[in-house]
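Run folding on both entries below.
>entry_1
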Amino acid sequence: MTSEDSLTINRREYTRVYAYIPMAYRLISKDEHMVVHSRISSNMAIPDYSMLPEVEEPLLNEWLRMINTKLDSLIRLITIQGEGFQSLPFKAVHISGNGINFTTHDPFQPGDILELKVVLSSGQSTALYIYLYGEVVKTEKQTSGYVTVLSYVKIDDKIRDEIVRFVFEKEREILREKRK
């Protein structure tokens, strides 16, 4: 193996970053393996009513649009609370567009599939509530538990792009802090 081959093998496809995010995990059963698919929670059960008919009265039209926006926000909050995203504990993770690793109390086996509930928020006021699925690639015993390394499975490009966007935002924050 040449040194050029070794560089190609060690090159990562995605940048990773250390972050402290709200997250919970659970081992999924073998029966669930075929039906899992990563998804963004806040987009799941909310119909799109953006094409409301125009009302002749401009003031009334503006009020109706404000009410519609507030109702959409309330529906999102209720959905998020119902799925348990509001009470997630914070965990230290290394995250990238390809996978994630974090410390667990449980020794998982390579090949196990974990469901992750994750909240990713950037410097803006928006947050994404995401269900991710990852296959355990490696578990390593540490003094504080087990470092569990996951590679995402059943993830579409839109969700991967959101994770990559989150990672780049975190990198920008780190660079800003170093400049100060």
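>entry_2
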Amino acid sequence: MSALITPRWLGRIPYKEGLDLQESLVVGKIGGDSANHLLLLEHEPVYTMGRTRDESSLREETTLPHPVHRTNRGGQATYHGPGQLVGYPVLDLALFDRDLHSYLRFLEEVLITLLDRHNVCGRRVEGKTGVWVGGKKIASLGVGVRKWISMHGLAINICGDLAPFQHITPCGLPGVEMTSLEAEGAKDVTVESCAEEVSGIFNELIVSGLKF
């Protein structure tokens, strides 16, 4: 099994298209595909809800400005849309000794490294997943696992409109304020340029053998 990840930039696609592609890759890996994949993309505007009985983070679903898709990741409600980089690693979690804690910390480290390269200080918050800049949240994580193959993954706000987050309780965190790389002072950033950076960082950290 190769430790290197094969990245693919998909541009802006509907949520279901991204989900269907992940499902296809997961089935392939369970069937013996040795490649590890990283899908990088933007979504058309959508709210997603993880597998939980508590859907209070959606607030009033009937008043939301964009559709809701319930999906098989962990976590509460979030928003995906233009200006946000979404990453879906479909890989064998044997790379992380089948340790979900280590895998989540790895995904955070990828994003913290991206921020650092744009002179923005990202940090973890004890007891929570994701990445913060000061008291504001800039990136969210939500993963799914099937037979130790990962799907879903990460979302980081690069640029654009953050107003859709105001209609929900992002990640079920009351009072949380969202931010973006652009809002934190990064210049000339695009989702595609950041996708290219994340591809490199992902492989650099995999090869380094960094463990958490």
